[in-house]
Amino acid sequence: DQIGDAAKKLGDASYDFAKEVDWNNGVFLQAPGSFQPLKALKAIDKMIEMGAAADPELLKKAADAHHKAIGSISGPNGVTSRADWDAVNAALGRVVASVPKQKVMDVYDAVKDITDPKVPAYMKSLVNGADAEKAYQGFLEFKDVVAANQVATASAAATVPTGDKIGTAAKALSDASYPFIKDIDWLSDIYLKPLPGKTAPETLKAIDKMIVMGSKMDGNLLKAAAEAHHKAIGSIDAKGVTSPEDYEAVNAALGRIVASVPKQTVMDVYNSMAKVVDPSVTNNMFSKVNPLDALSAAKGFYTFKDVVEAVQ
Ligand code: CLA
Ligand code: PID
Ligand code: PID
Ligand code: PID
Ligand code: PID
Ligand code: PID
Ligand code: PID
């Protein structure tokens, strides 16, 4: 297709730049300017809306392309192979083309809103400037091909199951865990701190398992889960906490996407996360909330997971 061909040209123009970026640099975990959690949540919300509008099949293929690209990483900078670099660009170009232009521009504008104008120049200073310019020229040509293949109207909303066992169980889970949700400091910057003692390549292994799980999920249910998050963001209070109803809808939606993949795929995520999250992190989280509320939430979760497993 045209986007695939254009991705090869984009690769010619941008792979030198890709090789020069230190993908293992811890700086990418930082906010791209001053820390503004509520504004950052708005930017994430725009990405969620774009993801929910995207073609689920093309999203899966993009997840597969990322998984494959992680498998061909080499060298100290963590760069993937030239062929996989092109495949990721092609897959993302197709995802972008599957949503209306305005949804893409809304992400761009919201991200710009939380990005210090000095950040792009700083990023450029870490690589060969001429190669960054060459990559950008390649991107400008690529985007015209994407725009020429772009849909004009958004796809239909997801179909949300009703009256299912997971929906009923989500009500009990949410009642048991909403006090815990209210105890958590959602606006803290602690969630942007590096995982103690872990390197980027080690952490990437756990993210790879999430990508694999995402690619196996039922596309309609994943879309529904993104829509539920978007709705929940719309009802947050000043402390970032969503309403009980929207929290319940998020739990139901996530239970359904978990049930749409094999148990082992879920356990692969859990086991790989357990390798990179030191117990001190979990204990620190626990120390900041009411322990009885956390234990009630945990109890609710262990009951919920049996319902999920039964329909998995
Ligand atoms: Mg989420 C999970 C935040 C968007 C899909 N997500 C999580 C949690 C964290 C979070 C609260 C990971 C850390 C953790 O396990 O804490 N997500 C979060 C934010 C946003 C977002 C702030 C921003 C909008 N997510 C989002 C989107 C999607 C997902 C758009 C795609 C549709 N997210 C998704 C999945 C999962 C998460 C599939 C998880 O599996 C993970 C999670 O919650 O695992 C348990 C602990 C969790 C909480 C504090 C909240 C849930 C409370 C549960 C139901 C009960 C508590 C149990 C116990 C006390 C603690 C967990 C024990 C552990 C051993 C399992
Ligand atoms: C400018 C001035 C003109 C010239 C110009 C110009 C530049 C415009 C530009 C630009 C626009 C632009 C847009 C970019 C957009 C990037 C979008 C990224 C989206 C990320 C997402 C992430 C996610 C996920 C995911 C799916 C999940 C939800 C999420 C589900 C259902 C200024 C040059 C024309 C770069 C969507 C993918 C996992 C949130 O106009 O004169 O330069 O760049 O998890 O959804 O699972
Ligand atoms: C524009 C203007 C509108 C019209 C429009 C428009 C276009 C927007 C577009 C577009 C946005 C867009 C985005 C693309 C992004 C491509 C990103 C590629 C990333 C590849 C990576 C590969 C890799 C790895 C990996 C992880 C490793 C690092 C690597 C570590 C820690 C402008 C059409 C709406 C194409 C990251 C995955 C293995 C490098 O908005 O008017 O057209 O395209 O090895 O991580 O090692
Ligand atoms: C300039 C002037 C214009 C021309 C121009 C120009 C240049 C702009 C530039 C540039 C922008 C730019 C951006 C770059 C962005 C790279 C982003 C990389 C992200 C990598 C991540 C990796 C990671 C992980 C991971 C999970 C870990 C955290 C991490 C935990 C909990 C100035 C040329 C357009 C290079 C996210 C995945 C392992 C961080 O605009 O005239 O030149 O470069 O380890 O999670 O640990
Ligand atoms: C233990 C001991 C027993 C008792 C027990 C026990 C506990 C087991 C547990 C547990 C397992 C467990 C699993 C959990 C799994 C969480 C999985 C999260 C996945 C996140 C993903 C994120 C993503 C996306 C997304 C889609 C994108 C890709 C991504 C596309 C196509 C130990 C109690 C049984 C919590 C997948 C969603 C946006 C990466 O066994 O004695 O306690 O918890 O962007 O994909 O866009
Ligand atoms: C288990 C054992 C195996 C069998 C199995 C199994 C089950 C795994 C499961 C499961 C995992 C799972 C995960 C669930 C997670 C739910 C998470 C809910 C999060 C809700 C949030 C709501 C909100 C917001 C929002 C953003 C705001 C904060 C809030 C800010 C900055 C165990 C079956 C495989 C259900 C985050 C979105 C508005 C609070 O593995 O043997 O069954 O379920 O307002 O952000 O303000
Ligand atoms: C313990 C002992 C057992 C019993 C038990 C127990 C407790 C475990 C616990 C607990 C685990 C736990 C986890 C918590 C996790 C909270 C996660 C919140 C994530 C929030 C985010 C918010 C954000 C943003 C956002 C984007 C911004 C950055 C942020 C930028 C660029 C010990 C009870 C089981 C509470 C990610 C989205 C706005 C950070 O196990 O016997 O008690 O709690 O602002 O992006 O700015």
> β content, as a range?
under 5%
Number of strands: 0
**Helical proportion, percent range:** over 70%
> The biggest beta sheet, please?
none
Structure annotation, total helices: 14
Give the overall average pLDDT. Answer: 98
How far apart are the first and last residues' alpha carbons, in Å? 37 Å
Question: Could you tell me the radius of gyration in angstroms?
Answer: 21 Å
Assembly classification: single chain
Bound molecules: chlorophyll A, peridinin
Low-confidence parts: none
- Report the order of strands and helices: HHHHHHHHHHHHHH
How would you describe the shape? globular
Structural class given helices, strands, pairing? Answer: mainly alpha
Please give a quick description of this structure.
With 312 residues, the protein is mainly alpha-helical. The chain is built from 14 helices and no strands. The chain has helices at residues 2-20, 37-53, 56-71, 82-97, 101-114, 118-125, 129-148, 165-183, 200-216, 219-233, 244-259, 263-276, 279-287, 291-311.
Folded structure, characterized:
- The protein is an all-alpha fold.
- It contains 14 helices and no strands.
- The relative contact order is 0.14.
- One peridinin binds at residues 31, 35, 37, 40-41, 44, 184, 186, 191-192, 282-283, 285-286, 289, 294-295, 298.
- One peridinin is lined by residues 31, 35, 37, 40-41, 44, 184, 186, 191-192, 282-283, 285-286, 289, 294-295, 298.
